[in-house]
Amino acid sequence: MSRAERDKWDERYRSGAYEDRTHPTALLDEWLPRLPRGRALDVACGAGRNALFLAAHDYAVDALDISAVGLDRAREDARQSALSVNWLRGDLEEDPDEVLPRNTYDLIVWVRYVNHTLLAHLAARLRPGGHLLCEQHLATSADVVGPRNSAFRFQPEQLLRSASSLHVVHYREGLVVDPDGRTAALAQLIATTAA
Fold this sequence. Notes:
Helix 3 (about 50-55) links the parallel strand 1 and strand 2 (about 60-65). Helix 1 packs parallel to helix 4. By secondary structure, the protein is an alpha/beta fold. The protein has seven helices and seven strands, in the order ααβαβαβαβαβαββ. It is globular, with a radius of gyration of 16 Å. The chain has a single domain, classed as 3-Layer(aba) Sandwich (Rossmann fold), CATH 3.40.50. It has helices at about 5-15, 25-30, 50-55, 70-80, 95-100, 120-125, 160; strands at about 40-45, 60-65, 85-90, 105-110, 125-135, 165-175, 185-190.
C-alpha cells in the first residue's frame, strides 16, 4: 500500500470516520458462544471495535491495522474500558508473512478488508481446531454501503473457494442490515482447521 493510502486511512480516522461504529460485527456477536476461547487476532482492526469486543469476552487479543490514527483511537478506547489488547501497526499489502504476528490463534477475525491472497496466510496461523471468522464486501448491483470499486469486493463464492483448505461451518452471501441500519452486501464465512 502506498504512503498515500496510509495517509488516506489516517485522515479518515482523524476526521471522525466510523466513530459511531462501536458495535462488533453482528456475525461475531451472533457466533461468539460457539467459537473457541483463548488467543485471537483481529486483522485490519481499524478503530478496534471487534478487538475490544473480544477483549471484553476474555480473549488475549492481537489487533493489526495500517492506520496509526485508528490504532491510537482504539488504544484510548481500550484504556477507558480497562481492556488489554496488543495493538500492532502493519501493512498487509506488503508481505503478509512478515507483517502478521508469528503467534498461532484460536480465533482470527477478518472483517471488511479485501485482500484476495490473505486467507492462506491466516489459515496457517490457526491452531488445530482454531476458527476463522470472515466477513467481506460482496460484488452486487444493489445500492449498499462499502467500496464502489469492484476490486475491493469479493465475487460470488470467491471467498468460499479460497477457504478450500479449511472446514467450512457457515457460509452465507447476501444483503445484511448492519446494527446501524445500513444495508451491506456481504460474504460471511466461518471455517475451522482440523482438531
